[in-house]
Amino acid sequence: MIISTLKKIKYSKLIVVIFLTILIWVWADLAQDDRHIVYNASVNISRTTNPAIWVSFDEKRSVSINTIELKGPASKIDEAKRGLDDGSFVFAFTFDAEQMGMDTPGTHSLPVLTFLRESHLIKKLGLTVESCEPGTLTVDVVELSKKSLTVQCIDESGISLTPESIEPSRVEMFVPVNWTRDRLTAQVKLTEAEVVRARTAVIVKTPYIELPDGRIREAKVTVSIKMPSEKDPLSPFTITTGKLGYCFSPNLQGKYKVDVDNLIEIIGSIAISATFEAKQAYENQRYQVILEIDDKDKDSEAPRRTVIYNFPERYVGTNEIELNQPPVTAQFRLTRLPSADGS
To answer: Are 330 and 266 in contact (CB under 8 A)?
Structure first.
């Protein structure tokens, strides 16, 4: 009985000793603060719920924080370092103008140190921010005005498309008040697959505008788009009335004459595949072929360069015109003009 009691006492003492040891370790870790500097953190503007304002950092949606000095228990600092090394921690902070009480039009000054100390990320890490650079950020809040915008279709390269119909053809959206009339368009971007699909059936898309900082704002309504039926297949044509234009560098402009040895080969017969409309547009170009003249060509006895076929960009973007022959390489010579020597 006595032995059993003694064993219980010893076990109790052992548990107390272990508990006290753990407390000492925890206290020692907490008492031993460490520091670490984080470089190239960022602050990003959050999406606002108020469509009538645009919030930015001098027309940028994100700015860099050059340095953030962190302070805290060594174990927490080590955890943050490991997170930075393996990419699980990203020091990207989100600025919410409405939450910070900076959503009224005008210019506001954001104290970065206070902002970082109150951030969810820093609290989650269990650390404090001792200092940072820069100390303040300028927040610009611009009031937007509701305007009626023309809906414009573009392809994935940004080239304008001509739809058969868009319903509705105009949408109301909030835009910067200084936007001129030619900028009052809301765009709808169609992939190549969507263009093909829209030739046989109406597709529904949401128009959008792009603010100067690159952020996208979508309209509250969708539009129905129908593209014209598939264009006629490309037909072979031969252009025999081509003209050759020269593109000089500023250093050579007006100082040299170009003599092309194989001019007939270049413009005498240009074989293309195109729709009839694209072929006519190509013939109406001022120059059908362009020869670029570089500065180094003046020092060469027999420069050679592949010419550029000056197809109308609109029809290139819709695959309605293409070269149907190997591109020709121009053989030419440069002769310095007497006027370039002041004579």
So the answer is: yes
Helices assigned H by DSSP within 97-246: 112-117, 120-125, 192-198
Angle value at C-alpha 114, between 112 and 118, nearest 5 degrees: 115
- Going by C-alpha positions, the residue among 35, 85, 190, 65 that lies closest to residue 134 is 65
Considering the domain architecture, whether residues 199 and 311 belong to the same structural domain is answered as: no
Domain identity same for 166 and 121: no
Name which of 240, 208, 237, 242 is nearest 222 in CA terms.
Answer: 208
- The dihedrals phi and psi of 122, each to the nearest 5 degrees, come to -65, -40
What's the number of CA atoms in the CB half-sphere (13 Å) around residue 262?
Answer: 14
Give the H/E segment covering residue 296. none
Distances (CA, A) of 207 to 105, 150, 330: 26, 10, 46
pLDDT in tens, 14-44: 554 455 555 555 454 444 678 999 998 999 9
Tell me what the mean pLDDT of segment 110-132 comes to: 93
* Rounded Cα distance, 320 and 234, in Å: 7
Domain that includes residue 70, residue range: 2-141
pTM of structure: 0.56
